[in-house]
Amino acid sequence: MKITPAFLALLLFASPSARAGETLYNGITLPDAWPPHEPVAKAGEPMPLPYLAHPPAVIPIDVGRQLFTDDFLIEQTTMKREHHLATAYEGNPVFKAETDAERRGKSPMAMPFSDGVWFDPQDQLFKMWYLAGYSSHTAYATSRDGVKWERPQLDVRAGTNVVENGPRDSSTVWLDLEERDPQRRFKMFRIHSENKVWAISVYFSADGIHWGERVLRTGPTGDRTTVFWNPFRKVWVYSIRHGWSGPRARRYWEVKDILAGPQWGALTDAVMWTGSDRLDPPREDLQETPQLYNLDAVAYESVMVGLFTVWRGDKNIPPGRPKPNSIFLGTSRDGYHWDRPDRRPFIPVSEKEGDWNWGNVQSVGGGFLVNGDRLWFYHSGRAGSGPTNRDGNGGTGISFLRRDGFASMDAKEEATLTMRTVKFSGRHLFVNVDAPAGELRAEVLGADGKVIAPFTKENCAPVTADTTRTAVKWRGADDLSKLAGQPVKFRFTLRNGALYSFWVSPDASGASHGYVAAGGPGFTGPTDTTGSGADAKQK
Fold it and tell me: DSSP labels for 229-245?
């Protein structure tokens, strides 16, 4: 039998002796040696998913809406999973180069190159940090509605909205709502070269405008390196670019203390993490082997969502063609192994020369925002600026997705979905469902597989609506409180509809207490503690 890295990774997770490490919020237990010291997959092969091969015997579901992006929660079903793509805003781009600073360098730029787009609950504003001018400065813009943006006149560079002087490559700005020190509420991770060595310089700010002196410089990185916060494990993750002459990929480094850990000596000290693989489709006109150009990530509800910018060839065909990068989607339940079942571009590059996003579509720091019933994905695109500059003329756009809408479990004729054994401490079952011409019912089963009265399908009031949050109720029961803490299974029966998520909330408002990515109107912190209370402020 051939022993492959993927097999070893599965063996490591499956071995009881190896399960001595951290147990996560969802019941997954990590190996004691974490992160893995060796690549978990052979180059060009998809990552193994140990938590799907060996799910916990009982899965806690108190954190966030429970999504159906994979089979982690599913024991048996006759429903069909459907993956969904984002829809571009018709008014794109919503932000493009206008000022002298944004026209600086080889080509106009007014776009996040990761950077960050956030909703700040303190000021009730959408806030954007972005690359102003080609490889030049970091600038700052604000918006009341997320569509119309203003450039405030600031005092950092008098009369402009520049907040940090370049030069720079990519950068990440993180609004850290879990930070206790108000002077470190905003964190900037700026990539630039010193003495011909690329690395990250880290800065803190109380307002996102006035940045203090550099607090540290990391070990060496590639130029397109980014950073994200994994709140499930309370670690900062450095998504380090690997590859100059060879295929672009990602190395991994995590730290709990942002000031103590990112001091690797050589790039190879960081473990090889993930890259493109044989399932990533090449462009038909180029047939180049795809490469992973960047990976941004953010916590959403009960999972980490990864935004994979995949490079699919760069032959300059026709002359001056921009890099045909698109954004692809992945999810992770342990923050390290990525599930990418749908290899269609989630946010594609345009194929029409002259379009604002003809080339090099890239994700932003913070990932996306929650605004009412939709997720808002800000992203950059480049129109090009002549045959010798394929990457010029960068702007910013938005694409939308239904809340929790990455994947749904669908049924035309009546179908069922039985969950694995779960436990919860909440009281009220909620669902995100689209069934205005059908119906959804739920029942609760005990550990013995028998239905627990009165939580039967027959007693369940059918849900016949298209809604991203509605309670499921049974005759003869006020709520699920008597089942709290017990191992149970939910079974859903659906006809002519789509089920996107479910969760058990402690509140009648339907607050999920899961993470809300880069925030949104109505949320007061990094998690959904408001439920229906957020509706009045959302669009």
Answer: EETTTTEEEEEEEE-SS
